[in-house]
Amino acid sequence: MARLKGHDLRQLDTVELERRLAQLTEEQFRLQFRRATEAIENPLQLRTLRRDLARIRTVLRERRQTT
Question: How many domains is the chain partitioned into structurally?
Answer without folding.
Answer: 1
